Amino acid sequence: VRQALLPVPAADVPDATAFGMPSAEADTHVILGGTGGIGVALAAWLLTRSPCRVVLMSRRRRLPADLTPWADRIRLVEADLAADPIEAVLERIEEHVGRIGCVVHAAGEAGGGVIARRERAAMRQGTGGKLRGADGFARHRSGEAEATARLGIGWDIWSEVGMARDALRSDARHQAHLMVGLAVKEGQRLFARALTLGLPQLLVSTTDIDRAREFYVAPSRTPAGTRDNAAAPAAPSGGRGAGRRAEREPEQVAARLGGWARSLLGLDDVDPDASLYDHGADSLLMLDLIAKVEEHYGVDVELSELSHRVSLNEVRSRIAAVTRDADPATEQSAPETVQEPPAAEPAALEHNAAQDPPVSVEVWQQGTGRDLICLVHPVGGDIQAYRTLVSALDPHLTVCLIADPGLRQAHPPRWSIADRARRYHAALQTRFPHGEWRWWLAGWSFGAWVAHAMAAEAEAAGRPAARLYL
Question: Regarding beta strands 53-58 and 74-78, do their DSSP bridges make them parallel or antiparallel, or are they unpaired?
């Protein structure tokens, strides 16, 4: 059931022509984000309604295939609303425009997934185009005599085009939302309705408002080592992980990963050794890539397990390591060698006995020396925020991070600072034995208290940390 919530009666709406309905005149309409899915849909609607011309502004100067029937009435302007000076953008538009009939703001960027887990730089980049483009402009008027009409439309999700269509494939709620999303023709009809109504702000919802919030409720956390089956993507033909059996050669895996990456990034070529972030990837795109790996190869990968300079070859190595450990044929053919695990510290033994969540030490940079810096993140946060910092550290340093183990638990452990420091210290000692490695410890906020207590643990054990950053 499609609902339209109108805060004023239709009878009170002024004449539609005052609110920018395309006229018979050959006006020129400017569409910001004009080569994106929604921008293209609205451009097509405008072009079919009148003999107008359209200026498409986007970061990449290309004519979308769906608009080729009107190519002679379209001009392309390359600009980045998030970065380019506004004056420069206006000058580029003025090269193609005389009289402007309307400006459609459809610019946006998928820059990092869940807001709470996005670092400041990614957030600024992802919202810059919207903030500098027009979002606050719809309600502004310089005076009563101003003739410019401004309409703000709060769109619901679009199912056939737009950034949401290809995002978060493993998120069950997002996929359920797409199922009731707007089709292109519905979006075009609603755009026409919005112009007719002329309301300063219009909210579009494809479901009852009370139900709509279900699509944004955070999924319940699952214990470490388990998977939320409700959020798992549908398995390909042959079952989840069929690719693990069908593709054993590194070249086959590399070819498939390269194809996925080129498709997601919109590039013709991706260097398998280069950082995917340098190619333009962000956290959201990385989650999409990981979802494809999990679906095709049956390999569980956490973004935090990959380094800050993750490359396709790093992802391929991760697949190879997991599939080799899980493949029965490999296990049967492997020589029967037994490697004794490192002796566990008393604290580690106590940790295992208590069945508390395991403390994971994630290595993001393998240095050339024997100096190790361990970054201790505050409770409840996500270590992806440290990607920029780790990129700036000296390459001779080995860099590891300890995220809050409670992030994977429905009920986070009630550890004191001393308990947490003891467990973190034991995990670090097991992975990077002091004596072989020279420890540097660093912590932020609550993590600083934990790092300080870890330093005390190390000193009490006769293995003091070389440096401590709080």
Answer: parallel
Nearest alpha carbon to residue 98 among 40, 48, 27: 27
Cβ-proximal residues to 106 (8 Å cutoff; 6+ apart), any chain: 31, 32, 33, 34, 36, 38, 39, 42
Whether the predicted pLDDT of 46 surpasses 80? yes
The mean per-residue pLDDT over the stretch 33-62 comes to 89
In angstroms, rounded to a whole number, what is the distance separating the alpha carbons of residues 43 and 31? 7
pLDDT, position 150: 78
- Kindly state the helix (H) or strand (E) to which residue 24 belongs, with its residue range: none
Write out pLDDT tens, residues 266-295.
Answer: 778 888 988 888 777 776 778 788 888 888
Q: CA 342, CA 433: separation in Å to the nearest integer? A: 9
Nearest to 425 by CA among 455, 401, 447, 400: 455
pLDDT, tens digit (0-9, with 9 covering 90-100), for 297-349: 887 777 767 777 788 998 988 888 877 655 544 444 444 333 333 443 444 43
Distances 167 to 51, 170, 296, 372, 451 between C-alpha atoms, Å: 35, 9, 17, 36, 37
pLDDT bracket for residue 425 (50, 70, 90):
very high
Of 29, 41, 39, nearest in space to 59 by CA = 39
Q: Which two three-digit tokens encode residue 390?
A: 């780790």
Cβ-Cβ contacts under 8 Å for 117 (sequence gap 6 or more):
283, 382, 384, 385
Distance CA 130, CA 109 (A): 9
Q: Is the distance from CB of 397 to CB of 404 less than 8 angstroms?
A: no
Identity of the amino acid at 199: L
| Residues across the chain | 470
- Which are the contacts of 468, defined by CB distance < 8 A and separation ≥ 6? 440, 441, 442, 451, 452, 455
* pLDDT category of residue 242 using cuts at 50, 70 and 90: low
What percent of the chain has a predicted confidence (pLDDT) above 90?
A: 17
Q: Tell me what pLDDT residue 47 has.
A: 92
CA-CA distance, 387 to 121, in Å (whole number)?
Answer: 11
C-alpha dist (Å) from residue 185 to 44, 156, 192, 204: 11, 14, 11, 14
Determine the 3-state secondary structure of 73 from DSSP: helix
| Three-class HEC string of 225-267 | CCCCHHHCCCCCCCCCCHHHHHCCCHHHHHHHHHHHHHHHHCC
DSSP class of residue 437 equals B
